Amino acid sequence: MNKIDISSIGPILKKYNLKPLSLERFGKITKVVTDKGIYALKSISHKINPSFPTFLQQLFQQGYTRAVPIYPTVEGKYLIYHNHKFHYLMPWLKSHTLEHRGDHYHAFFKEIARIHLTTVSKQQINNENEIKGHYETIIKKWEERNQFLERFVVEAEAKWYMSPFELQFCTYFYETSLASSFARTQLEKWHELMVEKKSYRTALTLNNLSDSHFLYDDSGKGYLSNFEKVGYASPTNDLVSLYFRILKTYPIQCTDCLEWLETYQSRFPLREEEFYLFLSHLTYPEPIYRCVRNYSEHNQRKSEREHVQALQRAYWLTKNIEFVSVKLLEAEHQQKEQEEESHTE
Protein backbone atom coordinates (compact mmCIF):
# COMPACT_ATOMS: atom_id res chain seq x y z
CA MET A 1 0.00 0.00 0.00
CA ASN A 2 1.47 3.36 -1.04
CA LYS A 3 0.29 6.92 -0.78
CA ILE A 4 0.52 8.65 -4.15
CA ASP A 5 0.43 12.19 -5.47
CA ILE A 6 -3.04 13.35 -6.50
CA SER A 7 -1.62 15.27 -9.47
CA SER A 8 -0.61 12.02 -11.17
CA ILE A 9 -4.20 10.70 -11.12
CA GLY A 10 -6.10 13.96 -11.37
CA PRO A 11 -6.21 14.16 -15.21
CA ILE A 12 -7.76 10.68 -15.35
CA LEU A 13 -10.35 11.35 -12.66
CA LYS A 14 -11.41 14.56 -14.38
CA LYS A 15 -12.77 12.36 -17.16
CA TYR A 16 -15.26 11.00 -14.59
CA ASN A 17 -15.95 14.39 -13.02
CA LEU A 18 -14.42 13.17 -9.75
CA LYS A 19 -12.30 15.11 -7.27
CA PRO A 20 -10.09 12.83 -5.13
CA LEU A 21 -9.79 13.43 -1.40
CA SER A 22 -7.18 10.71 -0.87
CA LEU A 23 -5.45 7.99 -2.85
CA GLU A 24 -3.81 4.70 -1.90
CA ARG A 25 -2.11 2.31 -4.31
CA PHE A 26 -2.40 -1.47 -4.05
CA GLY A 27 -0.36 -2.85 -6.95
CA LYS A 28 -2.23 -2.01 -10.17
CA ILE A 29 -5.22 -0.69 -8.22
CA THR A 30 -5.56 2.79 -6.80
CA LYS A 31 -8.16 3.32 -4.08
CA VAL A 32 -9.80 6.67 -4.80
CA VAL A 33 -11.75 8.33 -2.00
CA THR A 34 -14.04 11.15 -3.22
CA ASP A 35 -17.01 13.06 -1.90
CA LYS A 36 -19.17 10.90 -4.21
CA GLY A 37 -17.91 7.57 -2.86
CA ILE A 38 -14.94 5.20 -2.95
CA TYR A 39 -13.68 3.85 -6.27
CA ALA A 40 -11.00 1.52 -7.64
CA LEU A 41 -8.94 2.86 -10.54
CA LYS A 42 -6.97 0.16 -12.33
CA SER A 43 -3.96 0.79 -14.57
CA ILE A 44 -3.07 -1.89 -17.11
CA SER A 45 -0.72 -2.47 -20.03
CA HIS A 46 -1.48 -0.76 -23.33
CA LYS A 47 -0.95 -4.16 -25.01
CA ILE A 48 -4.24 -5.66 -23.76
CA ASN A 49 -7.26 -6.00 -26.03
CA PRO A 50 -9.12 -2.69 -25.53
CA SER A 51 -12.43 -4.28 -26.55
CA PHE A 52 -12.79 -6.33 -23.36
CA PRO A 53 -15.36 -3.92 -21.83
CA THR A 54 -17.65 -4.88 -24.74
CA PHE A 55 -17.65 -8.51 -23.56
CA LEU A 56 -18.55 -7.31 -20.08
CA GLN A 57 -21.50 -5.27 -21.38
CA GLN A 58 -22.72 -8.27 -23.39
CA LEU A 59 -22.54 -10.37 -20.25
CA PHE A 60 -24.77 -7.90 -18.40
CA GLN A 61 -27.22 -7.90 -21.31
CA GLN A 62 -27.46 -11.70 -21.04
CA GLY A 63 -28.64 -11.36 -17.47
CA TYR A 64 -25.43 -12.01 -15.57
CA THR A 65 -25.05 -9.41 -12.80
CA ARG A 66 -22.22 -10.72 -10.62
CA ALA A 67 -19.39 -9.01 -12.47
CA VAL A 68 -17.75 -5.86 -11.20
CA PRO A 69 -18.99 -3.07 -13.52
CA ILE A 70 -16.72 -0.61 -15.31
CA TYR A 71 -17.92 2.98 -15.06
CA PRO A 72 -17.98 5.12 -18.21
CA THR A 73 -16.43 8.56 -18.38
CA VAL A 74 -18.64 11.60 -18.91
CA GLU A 75 -17.95 11.05 -22.62
CA GLY A 76 -19.15 7.45 -22.41
CA LYS A 77 -15.74 5.77 -22.72
CA TYR A 78 -14.85 2.73 -20.62
CA LEU A 79 -11.06 2.94 -21.03
CA ILE A 80 -8.77 5.96 -20.74
CA TYR A 81 -5.34 5.97 -22.37
CA HIS A 82 -2.91 8.05 -20.29
CA ASN A 83 0.89 7.90 -19.87
CA HIS A 84 1.22 4.79 -22.09
CA LYS A 85 -1.32 2.80 -20.10
CA PHE A 86 -5.02 2.07 -20.09
CA HIS A 87 -7.06 2.94 -17.00
CA TYR A 88 -10.60 2.08 -15.95
CA LEU A 89 -12.81 2.84 -12.97
CA MET A 90 -14.82 0.43 -10.84
CA PRO A 91 -16.58 0.47 -7.47
CA TRP A 92 -14.32 -0.28 -4.52
CA LEU A 93 -15.06 -3.79 -3.23
CA LYS A 94 -13.48 -5.90 -0.49
CA SER A 95 -11.43 -9.08 -0.73
CA HIS A 96 -12.20 -12.18 1.34
CA THR A 97 -10.76 -12.87 4.78
CA LEU A 98 -8.75 -15.99 5.62
CA GLU A 99 -11.33 -17.31 8.08
CA HIS A 100 -13.89 -17.48 5.25
CA ARG A 101 -11.56 -19.19 2.74
CA GLY A 102 -13.75 -22.29 2.28
CA ASP A 103 -16.95 -20.34 1.65
CA HIS A 104 -15.03 -17.95 -0.58
CA TYR A 105 -13.83 -20.69 -2.94
CA HIS A 106 -17.23 -22.38 -3.12
CA ALA A 107 -18.86 -19.04 -4.02
CA PHE A 108 -16.05 -18.31 -6.49
CA PHE A 109 -16.49 -21.62 -8.34
CA LYS A 110 -20.27 -21.11 -8.43
CA GLU A 111 -19.85 -17.78 -10.21
CA ILE A 112 -17.40 -19.21 -12.73
CA ALA A 113 -19.96 -21.91 -13.48
CA ARG A 114 -22.73 -19.31 -13.79
CA ILE A 115 -20.75 -17.29 -16.34
CA HIS A 116 -20.11 -20.44 -18.36
CA LEU A 117 -23.76 -21.47 -18.11
CA THR A 118 -24.95 -18.00 -19.16
CA THR A 119 -22.71 -17.78 -22.21
CA VAL A 120 -22.36 -21.42 -23.33
CA SER A 121 -22.80 -22.16 -27.02
CA LYS A 122 -22.75 -25.48 -28.85
CA GLN A 123 -20.55 -25.64 -31.95
CA GLN A 124 -20.95 -28.30 -34.62
CA ILE A 125 -17.93 -29.98 -36.19
CA ASN A 126 -18.56 -30.29 -39.90
CA ASN A 127 -15.14 -31.63 -40.77
CA GLU A 128 -13.47 -34.35 -38.70
CA ASN A 129 -10.09 -33.04 -39.83
CA GLU A 130 -10.63 -30.05 -37.52
CA ILE A 131 -10.51 -32.26 -34.45
CA LYS A 132 -7.81 -34.51 -35.87
CA GLY A 133 -5.67 -31.48 -36.68
CA HIS A 134 -6.10 -29.99 -33.21
CA TYR A 135 -5.30 -33.31 -31.56
CA GLU A 136 -2.21 -33.90 -33.69
CA THR A 137 -0.95 -30.36 -33.06
CA ILE A 138 -1.07 -30.87 -29.29
CA ILE A 139 0.50 -34.33 -29.49
CA LYS A 140 3.30 -33.01 -31.70
CA LYS A 141 4.01 -30.15 -29.29
CA TRP A 142 4.11 -32.51 -26.31
CA GLU A 143 6.36 -35.00 -28.14
CA GLU A 144 8.82 -32.23 -28.98
CA ARG A 145 8.86 -31.16 -25.34
CA ASN A 146 9.37 -34.75 -24.17
CA GLN A 147 12.26 -35.21 -26.60
CA PHE A 148 13.84 -31.99 -25.36
CA LEU A 149 13.66 -33.23 -21.75
CA GLU A 150 15.08 -36.63 -22.73
CA ARG A 151 18.03 -34.99 -24.49
CA PHE A 152 18.66 -32.82 -21.45
CA VAL A 153 18.86 -35.93 -19.21
CA VAL A 154 21.11 -37.81 -21.64
CA GLU A 155 23.51 -34.87 -21.93
CA ALA A 156 23.50 -34.30 -18.17
CA GLU A 157 24.24 -37.94 -17.37
CA ALA A 158 27.09 -37.97 -19.87
CA LYS A 159 28.97 -35.30 -17.88
CA TRP A 160 31.61 -36.07 -15.28
CA TYR A 161 29.93 -33.56 -12.98
CA MET A 162 26.29 -32.55 -13.07
CA SER A 163 25.18 -29.16 -11.83
CA PRO A 164 22.72 -29.12 -8.89
CA PHE A 165 19.89 -28.29 -11.32
CA GLU A 166 20.78 -31.14 -13.68
CA LEU A 167 21.00 -33.61 -10.80
CA GLN A 168 17.67 -32.43 -9.43
CA PHE A 169 15.90 -32.77 -12.75
CA CYS A 170 17.34 -36.24 -13.38
CA THR A 171 15.72 -37.38 -10.12
CA TYR A 172 12.40 -35.92 -11.31
CA PHE A 173 12.57 -37.19 -14.89
CA TYR A 174 10.85 -40.56 -14.41
CA GLU A 175 7.85 -38.99 -12.67
CA THR A 176 7.76 -36.25 -15.28
CA SER A 177 7.55 -38.92 -18.00
CA LEU A 178 4.68 -40.65 -16.18
CA ALA A 179 2.79 -37.35 -15.93
CA SER A 180 3.29 -36.76 -19.66
CA SER A 181 2.03 -40.26 -20.48
CA PHE A 182 -1.01 -39.78 -18.24
CA ALA A 183 -1.86 -36.49 -19.95
CA ARG A 184 -1.59 -38.08 -23.38
CA THR A 185 -3.93 -40.91 -22.37
CA GLN A 186 -6.56 -38.39 -21.27
CA LEU A 187 -6.16 -36.45 -24.53
CA GLU A 188 -6.64 -39.66 -26.51
CA LYS A 189 -9.90 -40.31 -24.64
CA TRP A 190 -11.01 -36.76 -25.48
CA HIS A 191 -10.18 -37.31 -29.15
CA GLU A 192 -12.12 -40.58 -29.36
CA LEU A 193 -15.23 -39.00 -27.82
CA MET A 194 -15.00 -35.91 -30.03
CA VAL A 195 -14.96 -38.05 -33.17
CA GLU A 196 -18.20 -39.65 -31.97
CA LYS A 197 -20.04 -36.53 -30.78
CA LYS A 198 -19.01 -34.11 -33.53
CA SER A 199 -19.72 -31.03 -31.39
CA TYR A 200 -18.09 -29.00 -28.66
CA ARG A 201 -19.01 -26.16 -26.32
CA THR A 202 -17.56 -22.70 -25.95
CA ALA A 203 -18.25 -20.15 -23.24
CA LEU A 204 -16.98 -16.79 -22.09
CA THR A 205 -13.72 -17.49 -20.29
CA LEU A 206 -11.66 -15.07 -18.22
CA ASN A 207 -8.39 -16.94 -18.97
CA ASN A 208 -6.52 -15.41 -16.04
CA LEU A 209 -8.54 -16.54 -13.06
CA SER A 210 -7.46 -15.93 -9.49
CA ASP A 211 -9.53 -16.05 -6.33
CA SER A 212 -8.17 -12.56 -5.56
CA HIS A 213 -10.34 -11.36 -8.46
CA PHE A 214 -13.50 -12.42 -6.58
CA LEU A 215 -14.59 -9.45 -4.47
CA TYR A 216 -17.44 -8.60 -2.09
CA ASP A 217 -19.78 -5.67 -1.54
CA ASP A 218 -20.94 -4.53 1.89
CA SER A 219 -23.83 -7.00 1.88
CA GLY A 220 -21.49 -9.95 1.31
CA LYS A 221 -22.39 -10.60 -2.34
CA GLY A 222 -19.47 -11.81 -4.46
CA TYR A 223 -18.49 -10.34 -7.84
CA LEU A 224 -15.97 -11.43 -10.47
CA SER A 225 -13.45 -8.87 -11.70
CA ASN A 226 -10.54 -8.71 -14.15
CA PHE A 227 -12.01 -9.38 -17.60
CA GLU A 228 -8.95 -8.08 -19.46
CA LYS A 229 -8.15 -11.41 -21.15
CA VAL A 230 -11.73 -12.48 -21.71
CA GLY A 231 -12.75 -14.41 -24.81
CA TYR A 232 -14.75 -17.38 -26.05
CA ALA A 233 -13.09 -20.78 -25.60
CA SER A 234 -13.59 -24.14 -23.94
CA PRO A 235 -14.80 -23.65 -20.35
CA THR A 236 -12.03 -26.03 -19.28
CA ASN A 237 -9.51 -23.25 -19.98
CA ASP A 238 -10.64 -21.40 -16.88
CA LEU A 239 -10.50 -24.53 -14.73
CA VAL A 240 -6.98 -25.44 -15.84
CA SER A 241 -5.58 -21.95 -15.23
CA LEU A 242 -7.35 -21.73 -11.88
CA TYR A 243 -6.10 -25.07 -10.58
CA PHE A 244 -2.58 -24.23 -11.72
CA ARG A 245 -2.76 -21.12 -9.58
CA ILE A 246 -4.38 -22.80 -6.56
CA LEU A 247 -1.99 -25.75 -6.51
CA LYS A 248 1.17 -23.72 -7.04
CA THR A 249 2.25 -24.07 -3.42
CA TYR A 250 4.10 -26.37 -1.05
CA PRO A 251 3.20 -30.10 -1.19
CA ILE A 252 -0.43 -30.57 -0.18
CA GLN A 253 -3.25 -33.04 -0.69
CA CYS A 254 -5.98 -30.60 -1.64
CA THR A 255 -9.21 -32.46 -0.90
CA ASP A 256 -10.97 -29.08 -0.92
CA CYS A 257 -10.06 -28.84 -4.62
CA LEU A 258 -12.26 -31.87 -5.29
CA GLU A 259 -15.22 -30.28 -3.50
CA TRP A 260 -14.79 -27.03 -5.39
CA LEU A 261 -15.02 -28.83 -8.72
CA GLU A 262 -18.17 -30.58 -7.46
CA THR A 263 -19.59 -27.15 -6.68
CA TYR A 264 -18.75 -25.99 -10.21
CA GLN A 265 -20.27 -29.08 -11.80
CA SER A 266 -23.45 -28.79 -9.74
CA ARG A 267 -24.07 -25.58 -11.72
CA PHE A 268 -22.35 -26.43 -15.00
CA PRO A 269 -21.61 -30.16 -15.47
CA LEU A 270 -18.70 -30.91 -17.75
CA ARG A 271 -19.37 -33.24 -20.65
CA GLU A 272 -17.31 -36.43 -20.58
CA GLU A 273 -14.94 -35.29 -23.30
CA GLU A 274 -14.52 -31.91 -21.57
CA PHE A 275 -13.53 -33.70 -18.37
CA TYR A 276 -10.75 -35.57 -20.20
CA LEU A 277 -9.63 -32.40 -21.98
CA PHE A 278 -9.43 -30.68 -18.60
CA LEU A 279 -7.36 -33.54 -17.12
CA SER A 280 -5.02 -33.71 -20.10
CA HIS A 281 -4.04 -30.03 -20.04
CA LEU A 282 -3.95 -29.94 -16.25
CA THR A 283 -1.59 -32.91 -15.88
CA TYR A 284 0.89 -32.35 -18.71
CA PRO A 285 4.12 -31.27 -16.87
CA GLU A 286 4.42 -27.95 -18.68
CA PRO A 287 5.78 -26.10 -15.59
CA ILE A 288 8.72 -28.51 -15.34
CA TYR A 289 9.41 -28.24 -19.07
CA ARG A 290 9.50 -24.44 -18.82
CA CYS A 291 11.98 -24.58 -15.94
CA VAL A 292 14.34 -26.82 -17.90
CA ARG A 293 13.95 -24.71 -21.04
CA ASN A 294 14.67 -21.52 -19.10
CA TYR A 295 17.73 -23.12 -17.52
CA SER A 296 19.03 -24.22 -20.93
CA GLU A 297 18.44 -20.93 -22.71
CA HIS A 298 18.76 -18.29 -19.97
CA ASN A 299 21.15 -19.87 -17.49
CA GLN A 300 22.80 -16.57 -16.58
CA ARG A 301 19.63 -14.66 -15.74
CA LYS A 302 19.22 -16.52 -12.46
CA SER A 303 21.63 -18.11 -10.06
CA GLU A 304 21.92 -21.89 -9.92
CA ARG A 305 20.09 -21.83 -6.61
CA GLU A 306 17.21 -19.83 -8.08
CA HIS A 307 16.87 -22.29 -10.97
CA VAL A 308 16.82 -25.22 -8.53
CA GLN A 309 14.19 -23.52 -6.37
CA ALA A 310 12.01 -22.83 -9.43
CA LEU A 311 12.31 -26.47 -10.51
CA GLN A 312 11.38 -27.69 -7.04
CA ARG A 313 8.27 -25.48 -7.01
CA ALA A 314 7.29 -26.81 -10.46
CA TYR A 315 7.74 -30.37 -9.18
CA TRP A 316 5.57 -29.64 -6.14
CA LEU A 317 2.89 -28.21 -8.45
CA THR A 318 3.05 -31.34 -10.63
CA LYS A 319 2.68 -33.63 -7.60
CA ASN A 320 -0.19 -31.55 -6.19
CA ILE A 321 -1.92 -31.81 -9.57
CA GLU A 322 -1.26 -35.55 -9.61
CA PHE A 323 -3.16 -36.04 -6.34
CA VAL A 324 -6.15 -34.02 -7.53
CA SER A 325 -6.28 -35.58 -11.01
CA VAL A 326 -6.05 -39.17 -9.70
CA LYS A 327 -8.85 -38.51 -7.20
CA LEU A 328 -11.00 -36.90 -9.90
CA LEU A 329 -10.45 -39.85 -12.21
CA GLU A 330 -11.31 -42.31 -9.43
CA ALA A 331 -14.53 -40.42 -8.74
CA GLU A 332 -15.37 -40.43 -12.46
CA HIS A 333 -14.87 -44.20 -12.67
CA GLN A 334 -17.01 -44.79 -9.56
CA GLN A 335 -19.78 -42.67 -11.03
CA LYS A 336 -19.67 -44.68 -14.28
CA GLU A 337 -19.83 -47.96 -12.36
CA GLN A 338 -22.85 -46.74 -10.40
CA GLU A 339 -24.60 -45.66 -13.60
CA GLU A 340 -23.91 -49.04 -15.23
CA GLU A 341 -25.24 -50.88 -12.17
CA SER A 342 -28.42 -48.80 -12.14
CA HIS A 343 -29.01 -49.60 -15.83
CA THR A 344 -28.66 -53.36 -15.25
CA GLU A 345 -31.10 -53.45 -12.32
Automatic annotation (TrEMBL):
Keyword Hydrolase listed: no
Domain of life where this protein originates: Bacteria
Alphabetical list of Gene3D superfamilies matching this protein: 3.90.1200.10, Phosphorylase Kinase, domain 1
Keyword Repressor in record: no
UniProtKB keywords: Capsid protein, Virion
GO CC annotation terms, alphabetical: endospore-forming forespore
Protein name: Spore coat protein YsxE
Taxonomic source organism: Bacillus timonensis
Lineage: Bacteria, Bacillati, Bacillota, Bacilli, Bacillales
